[in-house]
Prior knowledge:
Layout: H1 7-13, H2 18-23, H3 28-44, H4 46-52
Amino acid sequence: xxxxxDESRIDSRANLGPExxxxxxxxxxxxxxxxxxxxxxxxxxxxxxxxxxxxxxxxDDH
Length: 62
């Protein structure tokens, strides 16, 4: 189970980049929270990430 990202990481990620600023965000803090939760889950389970990702070169498509 992946833990909830800590507030300092969320606050840091909530500072939107240029593309995100151009697109806009109703809730940058919640957006950052979701992005970090997804990222942490992928890092915690690299085999599942490899299986799920269409960008992973050695993906097993059976």
